[in-house]
Amino acid sequence: MNEEELDLEAGRKLLEGPCDFVLGVAWLDQLPNADRPEIAFAGRSNVGKSTLVNALTGRKTLAKTSNTPGRTQQLNFFDLGGLLYMVDMPGYGYAKVSKTQKEEWNQLIRDYLRGRPTLRCVLILIDSRHGLKDTDRELMKMLDEAGAAYRIVLTKTDKIKDQKLAFMIGDIEKELKKYAAAFPNIIPTSSIKSNGLDALRAVIEFYTRY
Questions:
Q1: How many domains does the chain have?
Q2: Considering only CA atoms, which of 41, 71, 69 is closest in space to residue 55?
Q3: Over the stretch 117-173, which tens digit does the pLDDT of each residue have?
Q4: Could you tell me how many helices (H) and strands (E) the chain has, helices first?
Q5: Residue 138 is part of a domain; what is its CATH number?
Q6: What is the pTM of this model?
Q7: Which of the chain's termini has less CB crowding within 10 Å, N or C?
Q8: Class of residue 149 by CB neighbours under 10 A (exposed 0-12, middle 13-18, buried 19+)
Q9: How far is CA 46 from CA 18, 113, 125, 155, 206, in A?
Q10: Distance between CA 30 and CA 80 in Å, rounded?
Q11: Which domain does 190 fall in, by range?
Q12: How many degrees, rounded to 5, is the angle at CA 123 between CA 65 and CA 81?
């Protein structure tokens, strides 16, 4: 993907247009027909995933938010104007749920990411205050092995100083060179200040065309 291929206006039109919740998937046999491109949002629990989904679409309650890690407990499919599915995935990491529930979520995530033919890209959300964690690296390694493309999106950049953010971006982009399926550039975002949202919308829109 080249930056000149991104269309900011088309991205805004897509994300702020019709966006409807389709279904929540707890088992793979519940998946909708693979009839359009899909973009998945993944990230550690409480990384700000639901808040970012709401901000991208200009809605307040499209994706539920909570201070309790692990609120998203299934693959939530949202239909963007019949052109693309946006998939909100269960958070991983320190969610306060039973060990059995964690294992079920993790298996669902692995099976979906490895076997979905219409999955175009996984957006891995990373809290800009904390950087990559081992659980993030485990997911990245799994995506490398599956040949599934992914890119890093930093969240909550309004909570970190500019200089520290710049160092964080540099360190992560350097590490990404070790991962075959990773997109080399990072998208820093703030759901509160709307920083980076247009760029991310344009990236999502790009995958409706390919």
A1: 1
A2: 41
A3: 999 999 999 999 999 999 899 899 989 988 899 999 999 999 999 999 999 999 999
A4: 6, 7
A5: 3.40.50.300
A6: 0.90
A7: C
A8: middle
A9: 26, 21, 10, 11, 27
A10: 19
A11: 3-206
A12: 75
